[in-house]
Amino acid sequence: MISTFSRQLNAQLSSQLKRFQSTLIIAEHNNETLAPITKNVLTAAKKVGGEISVLIVGTKCGPAAEAVAKANGLARVIVAEGATFNGFTAENITPLVVATQKQFNFTHIFAGATAFGKSLLPRVAAKLDVSPVSDVIDIKSADTFVRSIYAGNAILTLKSKDAVKVVGVRGTSFEADPCEGGTVTIEQAPTGEYSTDLTTFISQELSKSDRPELTSAKVVISGGRGMKSGDNFKLLYDLADKLNAAVGASRAAVDAGYVANDLQVGQTGKIVAPDLYVAVGISGAIQHLAGMKDSKTIVAINKDPEAPIFQVSDFGLVADLFKAVPELTEKL
């Protein structure tokens, strides 16, 4: 009897606490379209409950603001536009986030665990004198979060006692919000002087590819040291074209100079969780596994039957990749 009453009381308290929560999501975009990670962060924020606001910062970011305003369950979309935010530098965005926090008194501030989020959130947390919670893979309650540690070999559940929870969300751990079915007003962010002399944005050079972006692709084909040279990655590019896949690489392949470091998958690279991950000539070092082990289906091709990658793969082929990959490409 007492235990039943206790459970009911806890459920009521939990429901009431959710109503008091308010989350600010710092959206990632290119002024025109939302980055896929923002949709994953929306799903994560909804697990906290309460009001959800989205901050869009950029130069001419009206299209991005209109896109996120279609998401269901938002309280408001806050927009800050100006030349100050050209290049999305964390040094300029941080004081804006702090000013927005002071105006609305959010209990949570969320962003994706990307290069952008990892640069911004620690600065915001320092200004608010709280400890950031990084790379969250699940949310148990408004103050309890789950994250992986030791390259994914252990799962840590932590309870934050800070008044404001600053949280980096691993996008691959949460489904993408459809961003439809909703309608919300777009408000202007607090005005102020947010420019700084510490950092000046000069320019950026973005590589262009017809293939899907690595972190959001449904299929990823990665090569390792076993590829032996950068020229041999053409085998993977040909296969990727047949499967409409993104191409990745292990750190060993990147360090050897086979491919650029923006293709690196792993603990110190990009975290991916596609429907299909094909590891070609990759031994399966723990640092690489940390970046791809959440993939729904893992296929490994390696001539070493003792390679650690076979321990996590769903399907394994012990074969010479220089014979197996061309044959696979031909049959597709």
Structural description of this entry:
This protein has 332 residues and is an alpha/beta fold. It is built from 10 helices and 14 strands. Strand 2 (51-58), helix 3 (62-68) and strand 3 (76-81) form a beta-alpha-beta unit. Helix 4 packs across helix 5 and helix 6 (234-243) packs parallel to helix 10 (321-331). The mean pLDDT is 90.
Q: Give the strand content.
A: 15-25%
- Principal-axes geometry comes out as elongated
- The CA-CA distance between the termini, in Å, is 63 Å
Summing up helix and strand content along with how strands pair, one would put the structural category as: alpha/beta
How are strands sequenced across the largest beta sheet? 7-6-5-8-4-1-2-3-9
Number of strands: 14
Mean pLDDT: 90
Number of helices: 10
The radius of gyration is 22 Å
Q: What is the chain-wise order of helices and strands?
A: HEHEHEHEHEEEEEEHEHEHEHEH
Regions with pLDDT < 50 over 5+ consecutive residues?
none
Biggest β-sheet description: 9 strands, mixed
Helix content: 25-40%
